[in-house]
């Protein structure tokens, strides 16, 4: 069986920093509320760059880090809930920008768990011998689907992209991935698309809903705290690995309190979790690869380190990956 290893990482976030104090001028909120309820201090918000622009820049950095040319890529997967368009897929736009002329390309939507879902798809394609080198990007411009008048949501999210290259290898890399979903709770985190309207309908659909993210925060919070802890426990158990052997857990970055709750339930020090949500807010599918690239860039990862990536989000979906660096 072929092994699959992370060969390179990259990230890109827009330059524009929006602080909690900036948001106090937009909605009835405060730095105090946002900081204590979420841990977020600031986020990056695009001033015009679209999802493919962020994805392309993160991908370039990942290719440089893997010392690989775009022509060596066999497949590009972009995990996103905020694509540039219904079609072409954001992955196809990135394929064109990179000049990755031998690569197939498609988007995948599993919301904030999208990056871990994409890892599983890519891993299986490499393991089976279909492909050798796959670029995965988690990329979001959530600011275009946020209601900037809704304090319940607009303070939580940010824009950004993170990327990795997965390649076939003789050494063990991705050890295990476990995915899951609970579609019955999908209503808890939503963003509608275009309503059905066509020439054959008896009545024109007047429903002209604004297509913004809406969320039942407490329900998602409950789901998150359960699946994060269980996801970590299960993947460790399945692979007979003790949590003390894990160097870092890279969680989806939505709320400091969710991560804190998880660390207490698992009885591990919070320092095992790599947290950067104070700088970026929740960038959905991009949080895990952005955090991974920061860790890599800071030189905090050594060959052989065991890592866990764990995500949850819209769908509702969840996923955990056990990785040997
Ligand atoms: O990627 C997955 C995405 N989502 C998540 O992971 C989110 C999971 N949920 C959460 O992180 C938390 O539920 C939130 C941060 C969204 C909300 O925190 P909470 O402690 O659950 O607050 P709440 O929704 O229960 O609201 C408490 C109060 C409410 O006021 P009343 O009804 O008690 O008077 C809200 O109206 O806080 C109010 N509130 C705000 N106040 C100031 C809600 N948003 C704000 C705000 N500024 N931005």
UniProtKB/TrEMBL annotation:
One of the GO biological process terms: secondary metabolite biosynthetic process
Domain of life: Bacteria
InterPro entries membership: ACP_syn_III_C, ACP_syn_III_N, FabH, Thiolase-like
Residue ranges of domain Beta-ketoacyl-[acyl-carrier-protein] synthase III C-terminal in the record: 236-325
Known EC number: 2.3.1.180
UniProtKB keywords: Acyltransferase, Cytoplasm, Fatty acid biosynthesis, Fatty acid metabolism, Lipid biosynthesis, Lipid metabolism, Multifunctional enzyme, Transferase
Gene Ontology cellular component annotations, sorted alphabetically: cytoplasm
Domain Beta-ketoacyl-[acyl-carrier-protein] synthase III N-terminal residues, every copy: 106-183
Major enzyme class: transferase
Chain intervals for the UniProt region annotation (ACP-binding): 253-257
Pathway where this protein functions: Lipid metabolism; fatty acid biosynthesis
Matching Gene3D superfamilies: 3.40.47.10
Single GO molecular function: 3-oxoacyl-[acyl-carrier-protein] synthase activity
Catalytic center residues: 112, 252, 282
Recorded domain comment: The last Arg residue of the ACP-binding site is essential for the weak association between ACP/AcpP and FabH.
Family statement: Belongs to the thiolase-like superfamily. FabH family.
Function: Catalyzes the condensation reaction of fatty acid synthesis by the addition to an acyl acceptor of two carbons from malonyl-ACP. Catalyzes the first condensation reaction which initiates fatty acid synthesis and may therefore play a role in governing the total rate of fatty acid production. Possesses both acetoacetyl-ACP synthase and acetyl transacylase activities. Its substrate specificity determines the biosynthesis of branched-chain and/or straight-chain of fatty acids.
HAMAP family linked: FabH (MF_01815)
NCBIfam families: fabH, PRK09352.1
Protein name as catalogued: Beta-ketoacyl-[acyl-carrier-protein] synthase III
Origin species: Clostridium oryzae
Originating gene: fabH_2
